[in-house]
């Protein structure tokens, strides 16, 4: 984890030092991919490629380091890919599915069907890192939790979503909560994660539960956001092991078949 989202939230731009770290890691990943026989390589940017004030510099840095073309995903792209990726990893056939992807700076909710694809997509400007600014990194107080809960409710105010029959949640936030509370996330499970974040330091949560350090620091924020999604959709959220990465891989595979 390089921490691009934190820099964008706090200052708007990505520093030269962070760009250098990005270049180092992207170069390593590109070399690994080619060593494994990858014939077509593409670098894909998500929120940092859209939100940073110097996003073109980031894209150029990544493209040069990977020696590959770059593509920046829009919010709609991300929602559609998260939906298709989550559906790929879920065998249940239902009429209506919602997919929730909690990101660093926003939460994207997409609703549709397996056969028809997404019919509803909404991005809420509240993510793990933006909410963590209300909470601090570790052991938030009851007052901070209350203020953060109000901030989440305000971000979701006016959002009216069709009620699905199944809700899937994908991404790092969901996978971390799964290690703590199990595959199904409802209000009780989300509150349990919030209570853990209140009474334990991040390092203790990492050691006991094995979640990444940056996720331990956003545990309370993730729990509050997923709790609000559950409250509005009125169905427990099933954690999906697949998401926008798998959705993008599936898209590339389909494009390759079409081009053959």
- The oligomeric status of these chains comes to single chain
What is the typical, i.e. mean, pLDDT? 92
CATH architecture heading of the largest domain? 2-Layer Sandwich
Strand order of the largest sheet: 5-4-3-6-8-7
* CATH class call of the largest domain: Alpha Beta
Radius of gyration: 18 Å
Biggest sheet overview: 6 strands, mixed
**Fraction in helix:** 55-70%
Q: Rough shape?
A: globular
CATH topology (fold) name of the largest domain = Nucleotidyltransferase, domain 5
β-strand percent reads 15-25%
Element string (H = helix, E = strand): HHEHHEHEEEHHEHEHHHHEH
The CATH superfamily of the largest domain bears the name: Exopolyphosphatase. Domain 2
Q: For the record, give the distance between the C-alpha atoms at the N and C termini, rounded to a whole number.
A: 36 Å
Structural class: alpha/beta
Number of helices: 13
Number of strands: 8
Count up the domains: 2
Unreliably modeled segments:
none
Write the layout of secondary structure elements.
Elements: H1 4-11, H2 16-35, E1 42-45, H3 47-51, H4 55-66, E2 69-72, H5 75-88, E3 97-102, E4 107-113, E5 117-124, H6 128-135, H7 142-156, E6 166-170, H8 172-181, E7 184-185, H9 187-199, H10 202-209, H11 213-217, H12 219-233, E8 237-239, H13 244-259
Parallel strand pairs: 1-2, 3-6, 6-8
Antiparallel strand pairs: 3-4, 4-5, 7-8
